[in-house]
Amino acid sequence: IPDPGRREELIKLEASMRVGGNVRLSPEEKLLDARLSKLMQEEVAKEDFPPALHFFKARPLIRSSPIYSLLQKMPKGAALHVHDFAMVDVEWLVRNVTYRPHCYMCYTDDGSLRFFFSSGPPKPLTQCSPWTLLEKLRAKMVNVTDLDNSLISNMTLWTQEDPEEAYPSQDVVWKRFEQAFLATLGLVSYAPVFKDYYHEGLSQFYRDNVMYVEVRALLTQFVEEHPDFFGARIIYTVHRGINASVLILVVKEAMKLQVDFPETMAGFDLVGREDTGWPLWYFREALSLPASQGFKLPYFFHAGETDQEGTEVDQNMLDALLFNTSRIGHGFAVLRHPVAKNLSRLNGVPLEVCPISNQVLKLVTDLRNHPAAVLMSEGHPLVISSDDPSMFGASGLSDDFYEAFVGFGGPSNNLGSLKELAMNSIRYSSLPPNLQEKAMALWQTKWNTFVIENL
Ligand SMILES: O=c1[nH]cnc2c1ncn2[C@@H]1O[C@H](CO)[C@@H](O)[C@H]1O
């Protein structure tokens, strides 16, 4: 016969193990926590429970939730997993960038877009329509809005259609995803646009109360204009489809960048779909190069962004840890790899969890079933990030924080969980210790204000 006292004890023990389970709350924080807990009860009682729905359908429900408005105002710390060309609202790219002079456009045979800035017509691309100057095209059109809307939908996965019908498989969604990146690339890799793009990207995160970003980006004048922003660092990346011999050259380049720009370079990573790319072990010679020369090149590997069991790629998490990765991008496969999971925990190597990305790219349907729901309950080191917000119709970090906070454990979470997640993002960032301390102190001040203002 269970002893009620013992039961109580075990429930408390579990609660103390969660992310944030040991955070002690001040009297003010307790008041806010009580309010939050009431809101959470109302949220989980909703018939259309947002984390159970595809984000494209859930977004209006999320955005009208009082929890979302709190999360928006909350100082969330750092965004540690964000891709370069997926930071800024696509609307901005079309309405601002494609209206600049010298912007050429063409359609590929499979209906995707390519752009190029050039003073005269660029060299024709194979399997692509002839280039047209957008300025000329728009001058001839009666309805430019339709054109602009079609450009927008070409550069994001966001759709009003049923997402399950639009993207029936991982193959389909990844193909569209990579095409959208290629379209964006032609706009953003033009130097004047590049500068504005990063400024705009950092602004979008800053407006969402994020104070530091780790991205494949250049430092801009943004920090001077916003002294309470800690800037951005670059994780230099290359696509995991390249040859092992080419990676040797790329890693050498990364080492050089690390020496030349120690304050901007955070380290190195490989990107692209894991299931169709080379496994990390294939690149072992190149990846061993820095350490074999006594050189410190921090790694931030994408690993375990797969639901395929037992493939070579499925070993990426363990290999990332063996190569001494500083963090793991995604780590969705973690529950199937107990040894990798223990190593990540013992060595304090956090997983960068990106809930909306995993849902849109079809690793999980209902976010309550995301592996990070288990990790949260065990107090595993993790941070929440947004991966490619512009591709998914998300904004800053708030949407992903909502999905994690409400979806991964719902009422088991409290203000302490949010506090710990935000602090984790600073603690696990690659800011050097002195800046980390400064960032944490500033974050604490912002947090106290947030608490008082939202009691
Ligand atoms: O979730 C992701 N996993 C792996 N690779 C990604 C993800 N999101 C974006 N990219 C990769 O980043 C490149 C642009 O920096 C894109 O081409 C895409 O391959």
UniProtKB/TrEMBL annotation:
InterPro entries, per the entry: A_deaminase_dom (IPR001365), A_deaminase_N (IPR013659), ADGF (IPR006331), Ado/ade_deaminase (IPR006330), Metal_Hydrolase (IPR032466)
GO MF: adenosine deaminase activity; metal ion binding
Domain of life: Eukaryota
Cellular component, GO annotation: extracellular space
Cofactor(s) in the UniProt record: Zn(2+)
Reactions catalysed according to its record: adenosine + H2O + H(+) = inosine + NH4(+)
Keyword Zinc: no
Any single GO BP term: inosine biosynthetic process
SUPFAM superfamilies for the chain: Metallo-dependent hydrolases
Any Pfam family: A_deaminase
Keywords recorded for this protein, A-Z: Hydrolase, Metal-binding, Secreted, Signal
Gene encoding the protein: ada2a_0
EC annotation from Swiss-Prot or TrEMBL: 3.5.4.4
Name of this chain's protein: adenosine deaminase
Span of domain Adenosine deaminase: 233-434
Keyword check for Metal-binding: yes
CDD domains given in the database record: ADGF (cd01321)
Cell compartments where the protein resides: Secreted
Family membership noted in the UniProt record: Belongs to the metallo-dependent hydrolases superfamily. Adenosine and AMP deaminases family. ADGF subfamily.
UniProt domain Adenosine/AMP deaminase N-terminal: residue ranges: 6-71
PANTHER family: ADENOSINE DEAMINASE (PTHR11409), ADENOSINE DEAMINASE 2-A (PTHR11409:SF45)
